[in-house]
Design goal:
heterotetramer; A: alpha/beta; Rossmann fold; 2 domains; 14 strands; about 20% strand; B: alpha/beta; globular; binds thiamine diphosphate; binds magnesium ion
C-alpha cells in the first residue's frame, strides 16, 4: 500500500504520533524490532517519539538505557548483526560526538567490510533543530555530518504522513538508517506548533520510499530545495509570494542519503532558478552538495546564480534575536527567492 | 563546626533556593496559559537545582575564586556558591547583552573566567576540561584545584571513566563530585547504574571515594574538606558522591508522571531541615532570606534592564 | 585437567603461532631491502599475536560456533581459536576475492558470521556490539554468549566503562577479556592505567573480576570456564584479565626501541613452557607442529591462488 | 619573517621534521606550549610528528597519554582556557568518533558561548589519508567533517615548508586549530615517499598565514583546486600534461577553514575550468563547497561544468586494486582535466 492509495482510511495525527504508529505497527508485525534509548520507556521519549510503546510492548522490547550512547548504539549494532531490527534513539543529534565511532566506524561500515556477509538493519532516531532557544549544544541539524560519511542512509521527514511511511521503510530497510525528526514539526503540546505538524495519516502500514523527494507545491518560477521544518517555511513563503505573482516550486528532499537529484533537476528544468534552504550549517554540507550536483550535471539549468539559505557557520546562539537571525526562516527565504529572480 | 561556617552554608543554600524560585517564577511568568518552551522572557530548557543546595554550598565553601568549578546542564547552584557574578549570570539566562556570554550561551553555558567557572549541557563531558584546568593550575604552582561536578546519571558515560583514570594517573588536583538525585530525567538510578554507590567506583582508579548519604550540607562540607586538602597538597583526585534531592522536575515543564518517590519529596527539603538543625529563629532566618531576595531581585532587574543582543552581531565570536 | 583438553589447548596455541610466523614471513617477504608498509603481497598495518596464544586457546575452548567473539586490531589468535575459516581469513589478509570480506576488510576487519566472529581496529569499540550479540542471543534463548576481548590499553577508553555497566545492569551473557601484554604500542601499562589490576575494576560494575597472572593457558581455561558458565546460566557478565606477553612488536616494522623488558621476552614464551609442562616428546610435538603447518600453508596457498578483487567492483557493498 | 624572505637559511627536511621543528621552536619560545597524545613521547609519534621533543623538553611538557581521547583532548581544552597552548595529537583522524564531543561541542564552541571571554588556543594534530592498505578505519581524510562544524580552523599542509609555517601559525593562533597531516607526505622511511616530502625549509621560525592558499604551479588552461597529498598528484599530472600542451594551474588550499575563495576565483578568472581534487569523501564535503561557492559568486566563471575527483562515497577498501580505484590518484585527475577541457 502506498501513501496515495485512494481507499485508505486516514485520521489526523501529529508527526510524533505518526512516527510512533509506524514503530508500533512494525513491532506488531516483526518480533525482531525493539526500541532502546534514554527516556524512551515510561517517559515516552522527551519529544514523544515513543509514547505508549512501553505499555504495549513491555520492558523487554522498549528499553530505557543508561546515558551511555556508545554502549547502547553499539548494542543495537551488534543485535542487528544477529538478525534483530533495533531502533536506537540518540536524544539530540547534537550528542553524536559521544558515540560517533559506533555510528560511522561500526554501524555504517560493517556491511562493507564484510562484503555484505553481515547486514546491519537498524534505525537511529534523533531529534534535530532549533528555534526555541536551546543553545549551541541542543539546536543543531547536522544531517550534513551524517551524510558525509558513507554507509548509512539519512532520512528527514517533514510531516506526519512521511514520518510514518519513512519510519516503516527505515525499519524494513536492511541498511542502517538515521532518522532525523525536527522538534518543531512533532506537534508537541509544549512547543510552538507548525500548523502542518498535525495532518491526515493512513491507518494501515505503508512505506515512503527512501531516496525519493516530494513536491509539496508545484510552481514555475523558482525551485526551493529544502527539508524538514524548512519545508513549511518555504511553503509559507510560497503562499505569500503567490499573491505577488511569483510561483515557487518546493522540493521536500525527505531523504538526504540517497539524494534524489532527478527530482531537483526536473524541477530546475522548468524553473531555472535554485534556492536551497538548509537548517544545517552552510558550509561543507548539504546545501553545497546540491548546488554542486546541479552544476556538474548542467550549469545551463541555472539562469541565475543559485542561493543558499542556511545557518551561516555560527553555533546556534541562545538569545532569541540572535538565533532567529541565523536560522533560515521565512524572511531570509523570501529575500533569497526575490534575489534569485532579480526582483 | 563553627557557627559562622554554619551560617555561611545556610546563607548560600538560601541564596540558591531564592534564586531558583525567582527563575522559576520568571520562566513561567509569560508561558501561560499554554506552556511554550520557546516563549517568554526566559526561553529554552530550564534545569533548576532546588534541593541540591547542600552540594553546592558544602563543596564550594572550600574554594577560592582562583579554583575552578565545572558544572552541568543544572548549574545555577554551583555558579552561585562559587561566586559567579550574579547580575551577569542572570542577564545571560535572560539572553541579554550584559550576560556572561552576551546571550550566546544561555543557562547551560555560563562562563565566568574571573572565578574559573564553566558548564556544559553534554552529560559528563564537563569532566575532561576540568582536568586541563587542574593541569594548568598545577603547572602554575599556586595550589589551586578544579572541582568537576556531574549527576549520578552521568557516571555511566565514557568521559567519566576516562577522566578519573587520567586524573588519578597524573595525580591532578581535582575533586570529582557526583550529585546523586536518584534520577536521570525519568530513569531511576537503579535502571542506569549497576552498583548502588558510585563511591565504590573510585577504587577502579585507586583514588579515595566517599558517599555522603543524607544531603546534609555539613557532611558534604566535611567530605570535601578532606578531598580539597588532598588535591591542594599534591595527593591527587578524589570522588565524592552525595545523595541529594531533585525537588522539582528534570526541567521545567516536566510533569514527573514517572516519579515514584514524589510523595516523600517535600519532607526531604534540606533547607528547613538545616534551619531546624541550626535552631535559627525567625528574625535571623528572615534577615538571611531578605538579603538573598534583595540580591536576587537586583540581579533579575539588572537582567531585564539589559538590552537584547543586536541581531547584527549574530556572526560575532565564532573566532577570536 | 584431562590430557585431551591439554593437548587441544596446546594444538590451538601451536596453530596460532604457526599462523603468525607464516604471516610474518609472507608480510616481510617482499618488503625488502627497504621496508615499505604499503608494498608487497600483504600491505598495511600488521599486528601479530605471538605470545598471546594462551588467552585465545584458553578462552575459546569453552565456546561453540554459535557463540560470538569480538576481537581487536590484533585478532588472528582469537579468530583461529574460535574456528574462523582459515582459508577465507587468510585470503582476506591477502586482500583477495575469496577473503571473508572480498578484500574490503583486511586483517583488522575479519567478519565470519558463521561463527559470529568480528573485530575492529578502534580501541575498545568492539565491546558495545558484543553486548548486542549477547542481547540477541538471550532473546533467542539458546544459552549462547558473547566474548569481547581488548588489550589492557583499551580499558581506559570510555566504551569499556559504558559496556561493562550496561552489560552488568542488564545481566547480559558476556565475558569480557582483557589481554594485558604490558604495552599499548609504546606506552607501558604503568603510564596508562591508574591501578595495577583491571580485575579490581569489575567491582565498579558489581561483577566478578579475576586476573590470571602468568599467561598460563590452563589458568585462563579455568577462569573462563566459570565465567562462561555464569553467562550461559543467566548470571551476567564477568571480567577476566590475563597477564600475557607481546612477543613481537606492536605492529610489524616496530623497532621497539622503547621496550625496557625486551631482554626477558624470549624466556617468557608460553609455548615451550607449556610443552615442557605437558612433557610432550618430540614426536608428539612434531606431529602437532606439522599438522598446524600443513593447515596454515594450505590456507596461504589458497589465499595466493585467489584472484584480486576487480577494481570495477570497488563501489559495491556500501549498501545492502 | 615570512617563508619567502630571501636571506633566510634553509636546509632540506622531511615534512615530519619540519613539523617537529615548528613545535620545538614554539616550545622554546613559549613555556605555555605542551604536547600530549598517544605514543608521542618515547616513540616520537607513530608518524614521527613529535620525534625528539621528549628528549629536549622532558616528560612535563611532552606527555604520553592513556588511550582516552575524550579525556586528553578535553584536558587540552581546559588547559587552553587557563592560558596554556596545548598541542594534542589524535593519532588518526579516523578516531574522531571517540572524542568528537570534546572537539566540536567544547573546544570549538566555548569561545562563542562565552562571547570571547574565554579563549581556547590549542592545536589538534592528526594523521590523515590512505594509499597503503590500512583499511576503512585508518585511511580517511575527513577534513570535511571537521570543517562543517563551526569554531575551529582546519589546516592541511602539503609540504615541509608549509608544515612548519602552518604549525607555528596554528600554535600562535588564539583559536582551536585542527592540523591534518597526510601520512604520505611526512617523508617516513617506512612508507612510499612522495618526492616532494623532502624539501628546503627555513631554519628560523616563520608563519604561513592560515586561510591563504598557495599556487605551486601557475597555468592558463584549467584550475586544479586541491590540498594535502593530492597537490603532488596534481603537480605530477600537470607536468605530464604540459608535454601535451595543456597548462594546469594548481591551487593548494593549505587551509580548509577559512577557505581562500579569492585565490580560486582569481585563478578561474583566467582558466575558466575547474577540477577539484579531494581525498575526502565526495559528497557533503569540501569539493561540493568549493564548486558551490564559485557558482554562487559567478557561474559564468566556468566555461564547462566543473569536475570533482574524490573518494566516491565508499569506505576505503583494504585491497590495493580497490583502494587505488577509489582514491583520487593521478590517473583520475588526468582524466578529469582532459574531460573538463573537452579533450
Ligand atoms: C551525552 C548526553 N546524553 C544525553 C543528554 C540528555 N540529558 C540531559 S540531562 C540528562 C539526565 C542527566 O542525569 P544526571 O546526570 O543524573 O543529572 P541530573 O539531571 O539529575 O542533575 C540527560 C539524559 C545529554 N545532555 N548529553
Ligand atoms: C580510539 C583509538 N585510539 C587509538 C588507536 C591506535 N592504537 C591502535 S592499537 C593501540 C594500542 C592498544 O593497546 P592495547 O589495548 O593494550 O592492545 P595491544 O596492542 O597491546 O594488543 C593504539 C593506541 C586506535 N586504534 N583507536
Ligand atoms: Mg540525576
Ligand atoms: Mg596491550
Amino acid at each position: 500500500m502506498t501513501a496515495t492509495a485512494a481507499t485508505a482510511k486516514t485520521r489526523t495525527l501529529t508527526t510524533a504520533k505518526a512516527m510512533v504508529e509506524g514503530i508500533a505497527q512494525e513491532m506488531r508485525r516483526d518480533p525482531a524490532v525493539f526500541v532502546l534509548g534514554e527516556d524512551i520507556g515510561t517517559y515516552g521519549g522527551v519529544f514523544s517519539s515513543t509514547t505508549g510503546l512501553l505499555d504495549e510492548f513491555g520492558a523487554d522490547r522498549v528499553l530505557d538505557t543508561p546515558i551511555s550512547e556508545s554502549a547502547f548504539i553499539g548494542l543495537a549494532t551488534g543485535a542487528a548483526t544477529e538478525g534483530m531490527r533495533p531502533i536506537a534513539e540518540l536524544m539530540f543529534a547534537d550528542f553524536f560526538g559521544v558515540c560517533m565511532d559506533q555510528i560511522y566506524n561500526h554501524m555504517a561500515k560493517i556491511h562493507f567490510e564484510s562484503a555484505g556477509n553481515v547486514k546491519v538493519p537498524m534505525v537511529i532516531t534523533t531529534a534535530v533543530g532549533g528555534g526555541y532557544s536551546d543553545g549551541t549544544q541542543h539546536s543543531q541539524c547536522l544531517w550534513g555530518t551524517f551524510a558525509h560519511l558513507p554507509g548509512m542512509k539519512v532520512v528527514v521527514p517533514s510531516n506526519p504522513a512521511d514520518a510514518k511511511g519513512l519510519m516503516i521503510s527505515a525499519i524494513r530497510d536492511d541498511n542502517p538508517v538515521i532518522y532525523m525528526f525536527h522538534k518543531g514539526i512533532m506537534g508537541l503540546p509544549w512547543m510552538a506548533k507548525n500548523r502542518r505538524s498535525v495532518a491526515p495519516v493512513e491507518s494501515e502500514p505503508y512505506e515512503i520510499p527512501i531516496g525519493k523527494a516530494a513536491i509539496p507545491r508545484a510552481g514555475s518560477d523558482v525551485t526551493i530545495v529544502t527539508l524538514s521544518l524548512s519545508v513549511h517555511h518555504a511553503l509559507d513563503v510560497a503562499d505569500d509570494l503567490a499573491a505577488e505573482g511569483i510561483d515557487c516550486e518546493v522540493v521536500d528532499l525527505r531523504s538526504v542519503v540517497p539524494l534524489d537529484l532527478d527530482t531537483i533537476l526536473e524541477s530546475l528544468g522548468h524553473t531555472g532558478h535554485l534556492v536551497v534552504v538548509d537548517e544545517d550549517y552552510l558550509s561543507f554540507g548539504l546545501s553545497g552538495e546540491i548546488v554542486s550536483r546541479v552544476v556538474e550535471k548542467d550549469p545551463a539549468l541555472l539562469r541565475k546564480p543559485p542561493l543558499r539559505v542556511a545557518v551561516p557557520d555560527v553555533p546556534l546562539p541562545y538569545a532569541r534575536p540572535l538565533e532567529h537571525e541565523v536560522l533560515p526562516g521565512p524572511a531570509r527565504i523570501r529575500q533569497a527567492v526575490l534575489e534569485v529572480l532579480g526582483r | 563546626m563553627e557557627r559562622s561556617t554554619q551560617l555561611e552554608l545556610y546563607r548560600t543554600m538560601v541564596l540558591i533556593r531564592t534564586y531558583e524560585e525567582a527563575i522559576l517564577r520568571e520562566y513561567h511568568a509569560d508561558k501561560k496559559p499554554v506552556f511554550d518552551i520557546g516563549a517568554g522572557l526566559i526561553p529554552g530548557e530550564m534545569h533548576l537545582a532546588a534541593g541540591q543546595e547542600p552540594v553546592a554550598a558544602g563543596v564550594c565553601a572550600h574554594l577560592t575564586a582562583a579554583d575552578a568549578v565545572t558544572a552541568t546542564h543544572r548549574p545555577h547552584h554551583l555558579a552561585l556558591a562559587h561566586g559567579v557574578d550574579l547580575r551577569r549570570m542572570t542577564a545571560e539566562i535572560f539572553g541579554r547583552e550584559d550576560g556572561l556570554g552576551r546571550g550566546r550561551g544561555g543557562h547551560m553555558h555560563l562562563f565566568d573566567p574571573s572565578v574559573h567557572f564553566s558548564c556544559s549541557g553534554i552529560i559528563a563531558e564537563g569532566y575532561p576540561p576540568a582536568l586541563g584546568q587542574a593541569f594548568a593550575f598545577r603547572n602554575a604552582g599556586k595550589g589551586n584545584i578544579a572541582v568537576a561536578v556531574t549527576g549520578e546519571g552521568a557516571v555511566n558515560q565514557g568521559a567519566f571513566h576516562e577522566s578519573l583514570n587520567l586524573a588519578a594517573l597524573w595525580k591532578l588536583p581535582v575533586v570529582f563530585v557526583v550529585e546523586d538525585n536518584d534520577w536521570g530525567v525519568s530513569v531511576p538510578r537503579s535502571a542506569s547504574t549497576s552498583v548502588s554507590s558510585n563511591a565504590v567506583r573510585a577504587a577502579a582508579y585507586g583514588i579515595p571515594g566517599v558517599r555522603v548519604e543524607d544531603n546534609n550540607v555539613e557532611a558534604v562540607w566535611e567530605a570535601t574538606r578532606e578531598a580539597v586538602e588532598r588535591a591542594r597538597s599534591g595527593g591527587g583526585p578524589s570522588l565524592i558522591e552525595v545523595h541529594t534531592l531533585r525537588l522539582w522536575g528534570h526541567f521545567e515543564g516536566d510533569a514527573q508522571a514517572y516519579r515514584s518517590d514524589l510523595e516523600n519529596v517535600p519532607g526531604r527539603d534540606p533547607i528547613p531541615t538545616y534551619r531546624a538543625q541550626l535552631e535559627l529563629d525567625d528574625r535571623a532566618a528572615d534577615t538571611i532570606a531578605a538579603d538573598a531576595s534583595a540580591r536576587v531581585e537586583d540581579a533579575i532587574a539588572y537582567a531585564k534592564r539589559s538590552p537584547e543582543p543586536d541581531p547584527k552581531s549574530a556572526l560575532s565570536y565564532v573566532f577570536a
